[in-house]
């Protein structure tokens, strides 16, 4: 008899240590009920409990909110959820986009509605017409509904690369994440994440035909067409290189390449629409640059410089440049860690593509946290450890992060320079 067989037999016949407290287990009836609950039922329960926690935190902050540019003191939930960019989406839904761009006293293009894409406000306006309700409750309803849809889709996405238990805990992290209050505010993020999750799922399923309408809506909800086109392009290259072990038929190649080109065109569609409506070729770009002017003044958009400009603005030179360089290297290394590698090639290509897109065009400030939300597939890697203490701790940290983010970025205290 081998040593391994003896060890297994000894473990099987070993009597429990009376000094060790028995492991806590759910009652048998609860365990059976949990096993019989379909995956979507579990996700809905997770989503609902998380919304109770998040809504409670939001209401606590709203109760002490003072008068500000958007609301009076202690506003009701729907008003509090419509601050900041929610007001811009309201303008788009009710008024539309300006044909003449506003200018500052120095002749620069000022902040205006062209920075906000039409997908979310157009859908909200349609529901406003159908129900007769005002903007505030409809906008919150749209965001909340899409947050549930995203949670369900995220489980399906994670279940393709993880075990069902890990996929469900990834949903827990998604619903409890520090920026999850954004999923029930009058912002386009909830709707955008829904279509992004659907697009990633279809990509993993290789249902290229279905990606066309999804990308069209997604790219007109939040800027994403170019980043997704890069991910698709890398996907096509990877499939072509590995076609010996993963067949990539010519017809499938043409279809994948076509949807890649379509995504790139959709990435340019909104800047072209702004040009057509205003007669200014740089209408969209100059509008976006207006939001970074309070930090570094009005400058031309030079790709791959904004992060270093921001680092110098926040930390000075050369420390700011060193920190940004270290962040870039750290993220590159993160993509090759075992946990992230288990997410699969396609999700990692999206993470790399979106990170490259942000590096090329975004100026980091307090909105950086929100702009990082499309990297939510990383939560699948964070969900892998099965240690109970770890899982409880990370959920508590996430909930604490919600309160911290609400205090720093959402609540308004006088002149606030930390927009969400």
TrEMBL record:
Q: Which domain of life is it from?
A: Bacteria
UniProt keywords (A-Z) are: Endoplasmic reticulum, Glycosyltransferase, GPI-anchor biosynthesis, Membrane, Transferase, Transmembrane, Transmembrane helix
Q: How does it sit in the membrane?
A: Multi-pass membrane protein
TM stretches of this protein: 43-64, 135-155, 167-188, 208-234, 255-277, 312-337, 349-369, 389-412
User: Which pathway does this chain act in?
Assistant: Glycolipid biosynthesis; glycosylphosphatidylinositol-anchor biosynthesis
- Subcellular location, record wording: Endoplasmic reticulum membrane
Q: Where is this region: Disordered?
A: 1-24
Which InterPro entries does the entry link to?
PIG-V/Gpi18 (IPR007315)
Claim: Glycosyltransferase is one of the keywords in the record? yes
Instruction: Check the record and name the PANTHER family matching this protein.
Output: GPI MANNOSYLTRANSFERASE 2
Protein name, entry field:
Mannosyltransferase (PIG-V)
* Species: Cryobacterium levicorallinum
